[in-house]
Amino acid sequence: MNHPSPSGPEQRPDRTALVRVRVFDGRQLTEPRTVVLEGGVLSSETSTSGAQILDGDGMILLPGLIDAHVHLHGRDTLEQLCSYGVTTALDMATWPPQLLASLRRVTGLTDIRSAGTPAIGSGGPHSRIPGMAADAIVRSPQQAAEFVAAQVSAGVDYIKIVAEEPGAGGPDQQTMNALVAAAHTHGRLTVAHAATAGAYTMALDAGADVVTHIPLDRAIAQEDIARMSAAGRVAVPTLTMMEAAAAARPGAPAYRTAEQNVTALHRAGVPVLAGTDANTQPGAPAQVPHGRSLHHELELLVAAGLTTAEVLRAATAAPALHFGLRDRGAIAPGLRADLLLVDGDPLTDISATRNIRHIWCGGHAHTPASD
Questions:
Q1: What's the alpha-carbon Rg for the chain, to the nearest Å?
Q2: Does residue 345 contact residue 29 with C-beta atoms inside 8 Å?
Q3: What is the value of pTM for the model shown?
Q4: What is the rounded distance in angstroms from the CA atom of residue 3 to the CA atom of residue 11?
Q5: Residue 200, CB half-sphere, CA atoms under 13 Å: how many?
Q6: Residue 41 has pLDDT above 70, yes or no
Q7: How far is CA 286 from the centre of its chain?
Q8: To which H or E segment does residue 349 belong?
């Protein structure tokens, strides 16, 4: 597949031309064309002069994938994400701050955004996770404002709030309201964890911008779906996690409930983003592998009723839009050179995203995982 450049100008190591590739443009596939990477971004030029040439031979070029819900644990997390074509990861809780700061300094691998320390209640399941940060517990509206100010000072990109079923030990409604209001005062999005229908209602009552997970226990109330759609709220259902959590708890509500909830949200026009809750955290409902799991998430979203094109957008352009990442999510001049070249047509069969042949993360070439 790799061919030397024709005789002519000396090759530049920061310039690569992908020739004869079909590009996913957010809706469909283009005819074979040339895409040039230069200095970590996508060039407006299509000349191959001075470039290292890679012949795609009709394969499909996708924007780098974005996992809209992960948990980071170390550099190996970034390496694993990158090896599966996940070039951006939206972290939904990593502590202590020193660990997060060290991961932000890593270059050439998966780029991250993070909520840092989440806001939790004093009696919910998250308070019992081994090693949970003591300053994560928020007990009152006054403390909520202090918590958000501290997180903003620490440089977080958005605020994560863990909603539990009413009375199950999470922040009460007034405290959740105050957390969202304080975050918005500081210009930060809020992401609310809500794995039950009651928690979903609390998250919407508080005005959370993004709701992550999807109820396993029962259907989301129709009025909640309607107001979520009307207000432009965003869902990150993490079906991979919900499937694993349902399987790990015999007698628990069926995964089918979660899938039906996603179908209902999608039919109502609620934006649905691809996220997995990938983690290796002791005490989590299930441990989900980084990187590989996003490809399974795409398949689960198709099963829930999204088209293949909608699913690809759910892992590229849509999270970039809703999280304000203006330099990625599509293949266009001036954007980051986050790309994966796949063998097979994911618009026909979404599992083709697993057939990765080449990965570029901010212009850095990486070898795909072997499985």
A1: 21
A2: yes
A3: 0.95
A4: 13
A5: 29
A6: yes
A7: 18
A8: none
